[in-house]
């Protein structure tokens, strides 16, 4: 038979699944011999049984009786006894801390008769009646679902009547009257009297905790936090101890280190003659824990000893709740304490020094998300500000600058040394120069994975997007927000961590952690200056990141298309380029050449000529980047997007031509536009994402891939001739079948061979492919025969596996889908392990079945996402590739994955 | 050690993999004791070995020597012996008959000396020298790669010189001189003399056959026919027998039944004093086989006896090559003969009657493709015609009618009883009424799976599409082809089987098979009239189809959206509706309501009202169809396409508004257009295929699915009240996760419950989902928990698995992809078993792992494709659903799959 009830001395901290977090820790402290008031925990099994059957299991009642008797025997008192009543608290306690559930009912066991016993035993009638009215109030509200305001209002009315302001100024008689009022409120609201039977109070409390697991608030919370709905909660029954039994009693909360800064040394607050809720409510000013040293040295010393013991035992910063009842210290709760990002790194490093944990364990104490937080500059909290609007926090950081409405303006301002914010309705690849020039990007449209957001995150640039209240008027070059209108050059500030947009300049604080990450320890320490905490933080980050690098199995590469990106990524510790997109190399002035290629159509000579002209330009790009990457791999993806992306927009051109014709504006421009329109119409696709792109485009337009491959291979040959060590890799996008890959590979091998002969050198250039279509993963054992490596493209793989394009759906219904629990988090942010992840796993398995040592990586947005990195470690990839700014996070998480995974 | 050479008496007909088709059949006939000239076969193993290593394996040479010696010993003659030379032929013979490879070299063994021996032994000097010159000519051309025209020209020159027209008029001396000329041609072209060593001739011939496996022509052929490249060919070495040794010799080809009509009784041609090539070349008129009865009764009788023996042995119509050498009959080849579609059915039925095969075996002798051919009307072969252009044969059949440029014209003509052809640049759902009204559809754009093609096939309507030479000018209502211009009403004829478009009327022949399929045997026989062959064909089709229905495990349902489709499909034997699309029910006059729903946006009351107005209309549709389907399941798919498909096209509207504004045409219409434009812009999607559609739309726009479900459920309840047996099933499209399905299912269950209470009845309505996204297949074990059935949507699954949309890619690069061997046939025609099929298999397996008895079907285009039907049988689906016209094919193929599969 399942055991439903555990006395505190029966459990331990590893039984969280069964006893919940609170119960497991109470048991652990009991086991450690710390002064925990006796009690017991009802398991999550019991809760699940209750939820399934809608009935409290009869065995549970028997076991509770038994456990309660144990406690009563230990203390020699009985629940609700009229002379010397044992009182208990009933608290929920799930595996994961969960606001939204019923929390606590104190003073269970008091009734019209035992209240007198309590008064006698405590020698404090006022205390006894105050405890009783608190019970009725809490019980009424949380167990009986009575409107809490009814009790609060009655209390206020009474105080007014008595002409006092504080609760403590009410007398015992006042409180006796209040108890009567409260009982009447319960009777009126529920139709039943307040229950006098102590055991019934307890049973009702237990059932209320069970029920609270399924409230709507709890559901919503779990969905958001991705906590399974079927865990259930435990219930803790604990003997009451009182911090409000006069001036030798008190209650407090403390941490074994400062959870905010990470400084070692105690940190906490307490209040004498108070109950826990008084501390939390903030009605009275709390005292710092150090004050206890002076008022009650023995208790203070005992508490400090317990704190040291707990920290040594838990090997981590602990968060503690305690109560002093007439000079006797009781521990009511402990857990590993929450902390800020900075504190996490500093504490982990301290614990290594104190030899409480190993460096491996220390890695488990910090997260990539924390490191990300430490990397972004932030607005100075103390600075004043005027909020204009709040939108999507697309790429964290704080940026201040003049409004720039286009590339030209942004570049001009950057040239003049004036920081600027690029403000656009939305961005596209053409806006790249402006984004590079600007401090941050603000758009009126688009979600967290819009072009602006993705590119900005890639560049580590602050971005707020989808600010629908903004009206960007390009013609008049104004930005309107409500009834305020700003012109170009007006200064605004944007907070990419909160999504806030401010009028004017808000002061920004830089992060020395970022300085360290990009320029090394010395530079980081210098940036920290006199701030000793910051310097210690920089040293701690360095220590943990260095350890992560030592233990991780995943290589970390970067997605970089430009020399600037490449340099930044190398600074951040990238070990190679996992994705160099080449289409960006066709923008700007080179666009004219691509247009020539497209418009040439069947004029093969013209097309060949236009392509030929692109070779030296593209070679120049590759020379620069290969030189920077000397000795490190650089994976170059052949052109991927459909060609019409390089032509004008169909609708805009149709409108232009139609209007010109309607107004009879004949002339060479119209003629030119009409020629272009014919080409654009021909290339137009209903679903460009699923159109003529990637390898399909390469095969369809002979010579296109060849020109890119030639440019790359010749660049490598030239560098090699100069004694460098270039390591390019050719990557074919959007492959769905082995034959496609074969055709491109044959062509590439031919070019490599020719170039080797021409330069009299030997080049070892791997040729691989993206695995970004379901079919590629499903037939990976075939592809492996023609591929030297795989790179999983989880962006496209997510789009095709789910059948939605992120351009179209994120804004439209991701909000709804998150709300409805279809996903916990966007599958474009964290890899959908259950669906897309299965394809990745299948691809790895099938690919390795054909080529056991095949190198495999991932170069989608997920490469820098902590959860995803752990998944990629687990499925056995060799590397992740992510945007430069995410490289440190990926390094840290790859290290964490290595120490945390079971293999 | 591998055995590379098999004497004819060592093999049999089941060894086609090793001996090729020809070799296996020669061996079989030898085994049967038929008069086959002695010889041997070199295996495909030897060919593969040669192709891999580039060298004739040394063991092969030894084995050939041994086999040759056997033949020589049997006949008591030696290859190329000067006195009484043994001559042989060398022929290729792969597993599958394969034009494009080297075929035959005859008379191997002749040289300057043995030619005299042959002359002496045959007593015919002219014959000997003619044989020698034939050897040099064939050997030169096929083995030595000498330009064949050189020989032909020399022969012509000689005939001119001698003043004769026929080869036979050349004398022995003439031919001696010709042999010298031919030898010089060889010497000049190759630099080497014509080889005199008989064994060297043979070895060179063998190697030439091996090599011919890898010619470009052979490669292209194999790719097109999906024959693996690694099979290799066998080589047959056979003793020469001569049909040109005077008037008692001859050669011929015959079939054991008429391969054209299927009539029983012999059928063949022969020529006396001729070699096989003379029969094929058609220089001299052949005689019908019956003539042989009179000229050489013993040989005729022997041949007839052999034919009966072969047919009994092969249990099928055989195709035979024979030679008579001086009165002695020799069998040179046999195989199961090719036949027309009609003959296939008739012969299969005859063979059952003759108790040569079982009905199960008969099913293996016919195909769905043949049945399809029998169903389409065709142009009368003898009718005259003027070709206008040739384009894609999108949906077979022959249609004649007046040009109609739009719905209105087509409907008007149909009303007037004038057949018409709908001619459009391309079609979309709006053109449906016109397509229904027209005899056939002709479009200037779009491929085999364009809207026009798919819908036309679905309706069994003739369609030619992608006729790029057509210029459809809607404004002037003209159709231009080259310099000819036709107005509306001009008569054209289109052939959907060949893709031809003709000017004027071409006579059409109707198919009684179709009459039988839709109206039963009696009607079919009546349609056949006096045509006994046709009547027999109708009976044969009925017999085989009836047997298919008895043995098949797959149910055959239909995709039908209208009562008309439904009736047609029922006629064709559909057992249910597997896909009833509901979006078509929102077209026409109801479009205004859908526009209201969309334009209502946040005006919930307005939206609800518009939706409410749709309920009775949609209920009316369902009532009609459910009544027709009484007692049979009808799966209704909730609305799938994105809503903007119901709004005007963005670009057109942008142009309209911009032009009106440019011309200052203010007014209520512009204002209305601008309001609409705002909505259209808002709903516009970059990739509608991957946008807000299917279940996503249903969840996004609350009430939309509900209105459809309510209409369906109420229709069912009303019919049930009338004592009918409605069996609707609700199908949710585009599901990717269990949660989506759960939400819709909960809503549907609620509506069903309400309706049951309202009507006081009990409805048993299964709720299932499409599996048309990779994620659905990958997580099918989850979906199965919430789904009562699965229907695989292999169209969308193909699009997402390959990552291409058929709208965009089919025209653009499917030609290239077929050419380059990426696929043998479009994956939209036949399911890509290696990629998409793996997902289907996975979906079935995972789904059944959760729900072992779950009903699963498929409702994509593939449901009526023969190869795909076999695949679906094999993976264990319960039903296929296809367009009405394909129902008979699916029934037949499902039966074939059942008897042909191994389970």
From TrEMBL, chains A, B:
<keyword id="KW-0547">Nucleotide-binding</keyword>
<dbReference type="Pfam" id="PF00391">
    <property type="entry name" value="PEP-utilizers"/>
</dbReference>
<feature type="domain" description="Pyruvate phosphate dikinase AMP/ATP-binding">
    <location>
        <begin position="17"/>
        <end position="54"/>
    </location>
</feature>
<dbReference type="Pfam" id="PF02896">
    <property type="entry name" value="PEP-utilizers_C"/>
</dbReference>
<feature type="domain" description="Pyruvate phosphate dikinase AMP/ATP-binding">
    <location>
        <begin position="59"/>
        <end position="285"/>
    </location>
</feature>
<dbReference type="InterPro" id="IPR015813">
    <property type="entry name" value="Pyrv/PenolPyrv_kinase-like_dom"/>
</dbReference>
<feature type="binding site">
    <location>
        <position position="796"/>
    </location>
    <ligand>
        <name>Mg(2+)</name>
    </ligand>
</feature>
<feature type="domain" description="Pyruvate phosphate dikinase AMP/ATP-binding">
    <location>
        <begin position="301"/>
        <end position="342"/>
    </location>
</feature>
<feature type="active site" description="Tele-phosphohistidine intermediate">
    <location>
        <position position="451"/>
    </location>
</feature>
<dbReference type="Pfam" id="PF01326">
    <property type="entry name" value="PPDK_N"/>
</dbReference>
<keyword id="KW-0808">Transferase</keyword>
<feature type="binding site">
    <location>
        <position position="794"/>
    </location>
    <ligand>
        <name>substrate</name>
    </ligand>
</feature>
<feature type="binding site">
    <location>
        <position position="795"/>
    </location>
    <ligand>
        <name>substrate</name>
    </ligand>
</feature>
<feature type="domain" description="PEP-utilising enzyme C-terminal">
    <location>
        <begin position="542"/>
        <end position="895"/>
    </location>
</feature>
<dbReference type="GO" id="GO:0016301">
    <property type="term" value="F:kinase activity"/>
</dbReference>
<dbReference type="InterPro" id="IPR036637">
    <property type="entry name" value="Phosphohistidine_dom_sf"/>
</dbReference>
<keyword id="KW-0670">Pyruvate</keyword>
<feature type="binding site">
    <location>
        <position position="772"/>
    </location>
    <ligand>
        <name>Mg(2+)</name>
    </ligand>
</feature>
<dbReference type="InterPro" id="IPR000121">
    <property type="entry name" value="PEP_util_C"/>
</dbReference>
<feature type="binding site">
    <location>
        <position position="772"/>
    </location>
    <ligand>
        <name>substrate</name>
    </ligand>
</feature>
<keyword id="KW-0479">Metal-binding</keyword>
<dbReference type="InterPro" id="IPR040442">
    <property type="entry name" value="Pyrv_kinase-like_dom_sf"/>
</dbReference>
<dbReference type="InterPro" id="IPR002192">
    <property type="entry name" value="PPDK_AMP/ATP-bd"/>
</dbReference>
<dbReference type="InterPro" id="IPR008279">
    <property type="entry name" value="PEP-util_enz_mobile_dom"/>
</dbReference>
<dbReference type="InterPro" id="IPR018274">
    <property type="entry name" value="PEP_util_AS"/>
</dbReference>
<keyword id="KW-0460">Magnesium</keyword>
<feature type="binding site">
    <location>
        <position position="637"/>
    </location>
    <ligand>
        <name>substrate</name>
    </ligand>
</feature>
<dbReference type="GO" id="GO:0050242">
    <property type="term" value="F:pyruvate, phosphate dikinase activity"/>
</dbReference>
<keyword id="KW-0418">Kinase</keyword>
<feature type="binding site">
    <location>
        <position position="581"/>
    </location>
    <ligand>
        <name>substrate</name>
    </ligand>
</feature>
<keyword id="KW-0067">ATP-binding</keyword>
<feature type="binding site">
    <location>
        <position position="793"/>
    </location>
    <ligand>
        <name>substrate</name>
    </ligand>
</feature>
<dbReference type="InterPro" id="IPR010121">
    <property type="entry name" value="Pyruvate_phosphate_dikinase"/>
</dbReference>
<dbReference type="InterPro" id="IPR013815">
    <property type="entry name" value="ATP_grasp_subdomain_1"/>
</dbReference>
<feature type="binding site">
    <location>
        <position position="796"/>
    </location>
    <ligand>
        <name>substrate</name>
    </ligand>
</feature>
<comment type="similarity">
    <text>Belongs to the PEP-utilizing enzyme family.</text>
</comment>
<feature type="domain" description="PEP-utilising enzyme mobile">
    <location>
        <begin position="419"/>
        <end position="499"/>
    </location>
</feature>
<feature type="active site" description="Proton donor">
    <location>
        <position position="859"/>
    </location>
</feature>
<protein>
    <recommendedName>
        <fullName>Pyruvate, phosphate dikinase</fullName>
        <ecNumber>2.7.9.1</ecNumber>
    </recommendedName>
</protein>
<dbReference type="GO" id="GO:0005524">
    <property type="term" value="F:ATP binding"/>
</dbReference>
<dbReference type="GO" id="GO:0046872">
    <property type="term" value="F:metal ion binding"/>
</dbReference>
């Amino acid at each position: 038979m399942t055991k439903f009830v555990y006395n505190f001395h029966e459990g331990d901290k590893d039984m969280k699944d069964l006893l919940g977090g609170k119960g497991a820790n109470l048991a652990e402290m009991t086991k450690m011999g710390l002064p925990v008031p006796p009690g017991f925990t009802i398991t999550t099994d019991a809760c699940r049984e209750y939820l399934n059957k809608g009935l409290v299991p009869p065995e549970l009642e028997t076991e509770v009786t038994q456990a309660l008797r144990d406690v009563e025997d230990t203390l020699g008192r009985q629940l609700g006894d009229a002379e010397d009543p044992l009182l208990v608290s009933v608290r929920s306690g799930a595996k994961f801390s969960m606001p939204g559930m019923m929390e606590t009912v104190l003073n269970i066991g008091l009734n019209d008769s035992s209240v007198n016993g309590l008064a006698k035993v405590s020698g404090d009638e006022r205390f006894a009646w105050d405890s009783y009215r608190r019970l009725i109030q809490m019980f009424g509200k949380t167990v009986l679902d009575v409107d809490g305001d009814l009790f609060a209002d009655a209390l206020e009315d009474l105080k007014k009547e008595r002409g006092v302001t504080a609760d403590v100024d009410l007398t015992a008689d006042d409180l006796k009257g209040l108890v009567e009022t409260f009982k009447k409120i319960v009777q009126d609201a529920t139709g039943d009297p307040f229950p006098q039977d102590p055991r019934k109070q307890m049973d009702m409390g237990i059932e209320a905790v069970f029920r609270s697991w399924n409230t709507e608030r709890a559901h919503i919370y779990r969905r958001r936090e991705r906590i399974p709905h079927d865990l259930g909660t435990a219930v803790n029954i604990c003997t009451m101890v009182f911090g409000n039994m006069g001036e030798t009693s008190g209650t407090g909360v403390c941490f074994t280190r400062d959870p905010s800064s990470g400084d070692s040394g105690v940190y906490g607050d307490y209040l004498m003659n108070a109950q826990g809720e008084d501390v939390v409510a903030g009605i009275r000013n709390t005292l710092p824990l150090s004050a206890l040293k002076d008022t009650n040295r023995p208790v203070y010393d005992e508490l400090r000893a317990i704190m040291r013991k707990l920290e040594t035992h838990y090997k981590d910063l602990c968060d503690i709740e305690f109560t002093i009842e007439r000079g006797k210290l009781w521990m009511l709760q402990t857990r590993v304490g929450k902390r800020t990002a900075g504190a996490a790194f500093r504490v982990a490093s301290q614990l290594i020094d104190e030899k409480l944990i190993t460096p491996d364990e220390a890695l488990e104490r910090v997260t990539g998300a924390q490191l990300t937080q430490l990397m972004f500059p932030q607005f100075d909290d103390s600075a004043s500000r005027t909020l204009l609007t709040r939108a999507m926090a697309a790429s964290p950081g704080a940026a201040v600058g003049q409004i720039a409405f286009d590339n030209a303006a942004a570049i001009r301002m950057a040239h003049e040394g004036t920081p600027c914010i690029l403000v656009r309705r939305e961005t596209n690849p053409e806006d790249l120069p402006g984004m590079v020039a600007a401090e941050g990007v603000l758009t009126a449209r688009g979600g967290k994975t819009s072009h602006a957001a993705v590119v900005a995150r890639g560049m580590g640039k602050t971005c707020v997007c989808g600010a629908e209240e903004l009206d960007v008027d390009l013609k008049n070059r104004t930005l309107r927000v409500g009834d305020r209108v700003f012109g170009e050059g007006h200064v605004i500030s944007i907070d990419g961590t909160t999504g806030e947009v401010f009028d004017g300049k808000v002061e920004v604080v830089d992060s020395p952690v970022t300085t360290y990450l990009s320029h090394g320890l010395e530079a980081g320490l210098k940036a920290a200056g006199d701030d000793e905490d910051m310097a210690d933080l920089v040293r701690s980050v360095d220590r943990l990141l260095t350890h992560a690098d030592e233990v991780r199995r995943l290589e970390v590469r970067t997605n970089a298309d430009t020399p600037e990106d490449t340099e930044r990524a190398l600074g951040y510790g990238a070990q190679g380029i996992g994705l160099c997109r080449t289409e960006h190399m066709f923008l700007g002035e080179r666009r004219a050449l691509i247009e020539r290629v497209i418009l040439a159509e069947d004029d093969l000579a013209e097309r060949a000529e236009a392509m030929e002209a692109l070779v030296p330009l593209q070679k120049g790009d590759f020379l620069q980047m290969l030189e920077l990457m000397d000795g490190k791999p650089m994976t170059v993806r052949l052109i991927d997007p459909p060609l019409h992306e390089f032509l004008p927009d169909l609708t805009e051109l149709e409108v232009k031509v139609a209007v010109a014709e309607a107004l009879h504006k004949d002339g060479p421009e119209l003629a030119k536009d009409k020629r272009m329109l014919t080409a654009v119409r021909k290339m137009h696709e209903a679903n460009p994402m699923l159109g003529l792109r990637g390898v399909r485009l390469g095969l369809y337009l002979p010579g296109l891939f060849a020109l890119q491959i030639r440019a790359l291979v010749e660049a490598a040959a030239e560098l090699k001739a100069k004694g460098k060590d270039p390591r390019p890799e050719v990557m074919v996008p959007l492959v769905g079948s082995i034959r496609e890959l074969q055709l491109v590979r044959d062509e590439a091998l031919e070019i490599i061979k020719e170039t080797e002969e021409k330069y009299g050198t030997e080049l070892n250039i791997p040729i691989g492919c993206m695995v970004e279509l379901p079919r590629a993963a499903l037939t990976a054992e075939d592809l492996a025969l023609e591929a030297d490596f795989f790179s999983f493209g989880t962006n496209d793989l997510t789009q095709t596996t789910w059948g939605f394009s992120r351009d179209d759906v994120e804004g439209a219904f991701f909000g709804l889908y998150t709300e409805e629990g279809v996903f916990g988090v966007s599958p474009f942010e964290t890899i959908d392990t259950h669906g897309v992840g299965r394809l990745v796993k299948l691809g790895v398995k099938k690919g390795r079945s054909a080529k056991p040592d095949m190198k495999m990586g991932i170069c989608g947005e997920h490469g820098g996402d902590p959860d995803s990195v752990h998944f990629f470690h687990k499925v056995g990839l060799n590397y992740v590739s992510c945007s430069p700014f995410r490289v440190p996070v990926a390094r840290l998480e790859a290290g964490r994955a290595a120490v945390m995974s079971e293999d």
